[in-house]
Design goal:
- Helix content is about 15%, strand content about 40%.
- The chain is an alpha+beta fold and about 325 residues long.
- It has two domains: about 45 residues; about 260 residues, Jelly Rolls.
- Strands 1, 3, 4, 6, 11, 12, 13 and 15 form an eight-stranded antiparallel β-sheet that branches. Strands 2-5-14-7-8-9-10 form a seven-stranded antiparallel β-sheet, with no helix packed on it.
- The chain is globular.
């Protein structure tokens, strides 16, 4: 009996020690802003973990008749019970081309990331594209984001098709991705060796996985392990960098380009942005008890057993 108590307390102590090194969420943006539906995000304080300052909006490559906006939507995106719990609304970035072919616009929403983790980081966000993307993409539409020195592309013109992409600094094209309009997807990414000088012997490796809710649920059911992400994804991209130093802190930017077709409108809804140091931080959340919680459970159990033993002895 004594040995059982010693083992239980030893496991609890190990769990407590592990809790100090447990992975954490370093950035999140729930768009929990409480604004009126359709309100502009320009100048609104971010007020979320890992950010500083306000949202700002800008436009570039503006042609006559083109327009764009970045606004708040009071309805957030969801991804089922297997995804980490969310809250608040969402951000909507829209770009609409002018009335003649060849009159695009690029609309940007951005904010400043203050968090600066080193080593390997994982990130995710939910997104929904409301249309405006042809299957051959000869209108040159594009939807992308950047997180400091990191790049993720949800849609871009590549050899008369739509492709995803990922990379350090700029994206490397991956597989074909034709998003279904008004369907919510998960963009999940991983970057290694942040904050260190990259080289041939110390490369940075980037991955991007695009998942439907059914694909994500199948991945969770299979054990939610990284090696099975690709087989459960709709689209993927990989990239390797062997020079430079890249960091997460800097500008988080979402860019939506309307493309060249007259009056073509494309809108990206974005929600539940997270960056963490473990895969579970940005997907399932706490699918198993965290080490500190587990330790408390074990210690409580040991105390109850000890009390029961004491009562029996008396």
């Amino acid at each position: 009996m004594k040995t059982s108590f010693q083992s239980l307390f030893l496991v609890a102590a190990c769990a407590l020690a592990a809790s100090s090194a447990h992975a954490t969420v370093v950035v999140n943006d729930y768009f929990n802003l409480g604004l009126a539906n359709g309100a502009s995000l320009n100048g609104v304080p971010v007020n979320d973990t890992g950010f500083t300052g306000n949202y700002s909006t800008s436009q570039s490559d503006v042609h006559p008749g083109a327009s764009g906006s970045a606004t708040y939507a009071n309805a957030g995106l969801s991804f089922g019970p297997n995804f980490h719990a969310g809250m608040g609304g969402s951000g909507l970035v829209t770009a609409t081309a002018g009335g003649t072919n060849g009159s695009p616009i690029n609309q940007t929403l951005q904010a400043s990331i203050s968090a600066n983790p080193v080593g390997t980081v994982y990130g995710s966000y939910l997104f929904n594209i409301n249309g405006g993307i042809g299957s051959n993409n000869n209108g040159y539409t594009s939807v992308s984001s950047s997180e400091g020195g990191l790049s993720t592309t949800l849609n871009s013109f590549s050899s008369y098709s739509n492709a995803v992409g990922v990379g350090y600094g700029t994206s490397t094209a991956g597989t074909i991705f034709n998003p279904t309009a008004r369907t919510t997807y998960l963009a999940l990414w991983k970057f290694t060796n942040l904050g260190t000088a990259l080289s041939g012997g110390n490369p940075g490796n980037a991955n991007l996985w695009i998942m439907t809710q059914s694909g994500y649920d199948a991945w969770v059911t299979a054990g939610a392990i990284e090696s099975q992400l690709t087989s459960n994804s709709t689209a993927t991209a990989t990239a390797t960098a062997t020079s430079g130093t890249y960091n997460l802190n800097g500008i988080f930017a979402v860019n939506v380009n309307s493309g060249n077709y007259a009056n073509n409108s494309i809108g990206l809804t974005l929600d539940e942005l997270r960056v963490g140091t473990a895969l579970a931080d940005v997907t399932t959340g706490s699918s198993i008890p965290e080490p500190a919680t587990l330790a408390l459970m074990l210690l409580t159990g040991a105390g109850l057993l000890l009390a029961k033993r004491h009562r029996s002895a008396s």
